[in-house]
Amino acid sequence: MSLPHALGIFGAGIVAGTINTVVGSGTLFTFPVLLAFGYAPVTANVSNTVGLVPGSVAGAIGYREELRGQKRRAIPLATASLVGGTVGAILLLSLPASAFKTIVPAFIAVALILIVLQPRLSRALAARRERPREQDRAGPVAIAATFGSGVYGGYFGAAQGILLLAILGLSFEREDLQRTNALKVVLTGLVNLVAGVVFVFSSHIAWLAALLIAVGSIIGGVLGARYGRRLPPAALRGVIVAVGIFAIVRLL
């Protein structure tokens, strides 16, 4: 691996770690970078998943104050995320590589649509949050939806965080958005962790690329928890959409 390639992957890891902590679509940075540097799509995906785990840990530590008092809802949702992530990872390894190359462009397109629509989604969730309703425990619908997002995250995972924010926002309508985001960081991290464990024992991982992403994502996770909320949302969405379109073109 050349120095420019290493720096590019490391930089993408920083960006991805930051974005995953703030909102959740960091894979749309690291995955296209790995593709551009010649990694096969499945290898790029599993290496990216393993590499992003430390960034989620760093982000969760940064949000530790917002996580206080969420144990009762976090445990069942975490269990659903772990099971879903395992199923998604097994699907990735069981289905042929050609299926991944066929399915993932559609996944990225859906992820980009979610990113573009995020302002409307946030406003809708804010309006619902004003309604007088208390709910501390995770209901069956929230658990099932979290399981589904875990399957998606274990298989690919771009914009899994945005999907989870919607699920959690609708499930716990009066909860503060930063506390919701903190729980999202933990759940997406668990999905990446369990999928990464499956990949370590069952798939080929580009370890140097994964290590560079891991170190970068740790830095990004800290930056995201501390400063990432100040990023201009419109500019951020524009960059993510541009990178996502590049990834679709690269796969097709």
State the gist of this model.
This protein is an all-alpha fold. The model has no long low-confidence stretch (mean pLDDT 82).
Structural notes for this entry:
Helices cover 81% and strands 0% of the residues. It has helices at residues 3-22, 27-36, 41-62, 64-67, 71-94, 97-116, 118-129, 140-155, 160-171, 177-202, 207-226, 233-251. It has 12 helices and no strands. It has one domain. Helix 8 (140-155) packs across helix 10. The radius of gyration is 17 Å and the shape is globular. The chain is mainly alpha-helical.
N-to-C series of helices and strands:
HHHHHHHHHHHH
Whole-number radius of gyration? 17 Å
- Global mean pLDDT: 82
Q: How many structural domains does the protein architecture include?
A: 1
Tertiary shape = globular
Number of strands: 0
What structural category characterises the helix and strand content? mainly alpha
Helix content bin? over 70%
Question: Low-confidence segments, ≥5 residues, pLDDT <50?
Answer: none
Give a quick set of tags describing it:
252 residues; mainly alpha; 12 helices; 81% helix
Write the topology of this structure:
Blueprint: H1 3-22, H2 27-36, H3 41-62, H4 64-67, H5 71-94, H6 97-116, H7 118-129, H8 140-155, H9 160-171, H10 177-202, H11 207-226, H12 233-251
Helix pairs in contact: 1-2, 1-3, 1-11, 2-3, 2-12, 3-10, 3-11, 5-8, 5-10, 6-12, 7-9, 8-9, 8-10, 9-10
